[in-house]
Design brief:
This protein is of the alpha/beta class and 452 residues long. It has three domains: 238 residues, Metallo-beta-lactamase, Chain A (4-Layer Sandwich); 91 residues, Oxidized Rhodanese, domain 1 (3-Layer(aba) Sandwich); 95 residues, Oxidized Rhodanese, domain 1. Helix content is 29%, strand content 21%. It is built from 16 helices and 21 strands. α11 links the parallel β15 and β16.
């Protein structure tokens, strides 16, 4: 038995292809099937079964499309209500995939009908594909289905994790979430990528397996961060089988049409590096730099269904950006390649050394320090007197900020670049502190809070 792990960095997830040398099962594939099919081709195997562990909230599933393209069975919990045909499976079912035997385990918690798939070949150690159930050092969050069910699903998550822990300790653990996806309850500890994680490893490292139920539930629920706004739209897309269709193509826009988008209240998203955006950009545009986090923040910040135009001076950046947006259900957006004309807006950008020099020169000007990190980051240490507004809430709270020039920072500069552009669009004078938070300690800038 061979397990091929396919990283999906734009989603913070993993997809898995498990095979016996001839026949393969694919677990939790993304909408972009090319990496999955390349992996199957490289292994010289036939995809005969595809499985989703649950109805995903963070990305559009490619499982239905992959199954149809390869004439494979699509395995999904029989109790899930969906608008398409699939092979409904239940706890205790066993599905043959070549020489492999796939056992279905009900693992409610992350969702109500979540399942894990245990794959065996003869007497060899099994591989367990857990989706958003038991993760490496944590579990999937339980507040995405319905806030009213959060605690009960957390109890079910604890019971599901305990049930899985009773499998053979040498069983290898292959979750989907936990590699950057906000579907994980907490961040996942780093580990040697060359070493397989087993259930034995989790017996002492995973709070779900070391903490009494109610203590675990309280700690789990208290630790949940915000839910990206687009999540509530993605699950219905998956229930409708949206991933079976090709994404609607992008629509090129002229410079005049881009300007009209701004005037009409649409979003013009600049994919260029944040430093170049600060130097010169289209008035009314927003900086969301191309990269693994781009789609998440577009989905989180742009109201669903709003007209979006992506702009960049590098046409080759558009393809990956469109693919990543389609992965979360945003498609048919506009595109425009900048030629340097009309980039008349600008704002200041500095680093922590520049901040220290400015505060030493004039410690009490009308300056607002805005920290746009998340709650747990703020609690771990922040600048004295700073105002805390997480990046996803900046636009809504812009009018309530104190008067003065707004110096915006985060942990690395990425989110601060987004927030600075939002505030600048709304008429604030901003300075983007584009530097790593660790530099604050290196430069002996005073810090308040737990890390002081």
């Amino acid at each position: 038995m061979h397990v091929v792990t396919i990283e999906v960095p734009s989603l913070g997830n993993r997809c898995h292809l498990v095979h016996d040398g001839r026949s393969a099962l694919v677990v939790d594939p993304p909408r972009d099937l090319a990496p999955v099919e390349r992996a199957a081709e490289a292994a010289e195997v036939e995809i005969v079964a595809v499985a989703d562990t649950h109805i995903h909230s963070d990305y559009v599933s490619g499982a239905l499309a992959l199954a149809r393209r390869h004439g494979a069975d699509y395995l999904l919990a029989a109790d899930e209500r969906v608008d398409f045909e699939r092979v409904g499976v239940r706890d205790g079912d066993e599905v043959p995939v070549g020489r492999l035997r796939v056992e279905v385990h009900a693992t409610p918690g992350h969702t109500r009908h979540h399942q894990a798939f245990l794959v065996r070949e003869g007497m060899r150690p099994a591989a367990l594909f857990t989706g958003g159930s038991l993760l490496h050092g944590t579990v999937g969050r339980t507040d995405l289905v319905d806030p009213r069910l959060t605690r009960e699903l957390a109890r079910q998550q604890w019971r599901s994790a305990r049930a899985l822990s009773r499998l053979h300790p040498a069983t290898t653990l292959h979750p989907t979430h936990g590699f950057g996806s906000l579907c994980a309850a907490t961040s996942v500890p780093a580990h040697d990528p060359g070493r397989a994680i087993t259930l034995a490893d989790q017996l002492t490292a995973n709070p779900a397996l070391t903490t009494p139920q109610e203590a675990f539930v309280s700690a789990l629920v208290a630790g949940f961060g915000p839910v990206p706004a687009h999540y509530r739209h993605v699950a219905p897309l998956n229930r409708a089988g949206a991933g079976r269709a090709h994404p609607r193509p992008a629509r090129p826009r002229t410079a005049e049409e881009v300007a009209d988008t701004v005037l009409a209240g649409g979003w013009v998203v600049d994919l260029r590096e944040r430093s170049r955006f600060a130097e010169a950009h289209l008035p009314g545009s927003v900086s969301i730099e191309a990269g693994p986090q781009m789609a998440t923040y577009v989905g989180w910040l742009v109201p669903w269904g709003t007209d979006i135009v992506l702009v960049t001076d590098d046409a080759s950046a558009l393809g990956p950006a469109l693919r990543d947006l389609a992965a979360i259900g945003i498609e048919g957006v506009g595109t425009h390649v900048l030629d340097g004309a009309g980039l008349t807006a600008t704002y200041r950008r500095t680093d922590w050394a520049g901040y220290r020099a400015a505060t030493a020169h004039d410690p009490a000007p009308p300056r607002v320090v805005l920290d746009v990190r998340q709650r747990e980051e703020w609690a771990a240490g922040h600048l004295p007197g700073a105002v805390h507004v997480p990046v996803q809430d900046v636009a809504a709270h812009a009018a309530t900020l104190p008067a003065g020039e707004v110096w915006v920072h985060c942990r690395s500069g990425y989110r601060a670049g987004i927030a600075a552009s939002l505030l600048h669009r709304l008429g604030h004078h901003v300075v983007h502190v584009d530097d790593a938070w660790e530099r604050v300690h290196e430069l002996a800038i005073p810090v308040a809070g737990l890390a002081a």
